[in-house]
């Protein structure tokens, strides 16, 4: 029988955040329904970040209820992690690491020849924001 080492949820999160895996975010609609969307996510200083538009459904949902769920599953089916957390909107005018976090997203998910266009869109589009997720529970 093979020996399996138990890896903590925090370790699984750190390991999976190094891979260009699509995450699933769940927010709550004003009517109380879950709204789930796939997205690109990166880890930065023990928080998770994704980029979106101010007018997106997920951003609008967060203005009413900042509680989120986020899951990442390796394409092989294992490992995975899920979190419950609180989300906050971060704009380029008030968040010092705005460029650094967007750089992480673009380099993680886009091919090198798309880097300039990806960064330009994220830094110059007037609707672009980052959402910071502070994990409260990781499992």
Outline the structure in words:
- This protein has 139 residues and is α+β, with helices and mostly antiparallel strands.
- It has one domain: Electron Transport, Fmn-binding Protein, Chain A (Pnp Oxidase, Chain A).
- It is built from four helices and seven strands; from the N terminus they run H-E-E-E-E-H-E-E-H-H-E.
- Strand 5 and strand 6 form a beta hairpin.
- The model has no long low-confidence stretch (mean pLDDT 93).
Quick take:
With 139 residues, the chain is of the alpha+beta class. 27% of the residues lie in helices and 37% in strands.
- Give the ordered list of helices and strands: HEEEEHEEHHE
The CATH topology assignment is: Pnp Oxidase, Chain A
Low-confidence stretches: none
Strand order in the sheet with the most strands:
2-1-5-6-7-4-3
Tell me the β content: 35-45%
Number of helical regions: 4
- CATH superfamily name? Electron Transport, Fmn-binding Protein, Chain A
CATH architecture: Roll
- The shape is globular
N-to-C terminal Cα separation, in Å? 26 Å
CATH class: Mainly Beta
Please state the CA-atom Rg, rounded to the nearest Å. 16 Å
Structural class: alpha+beta
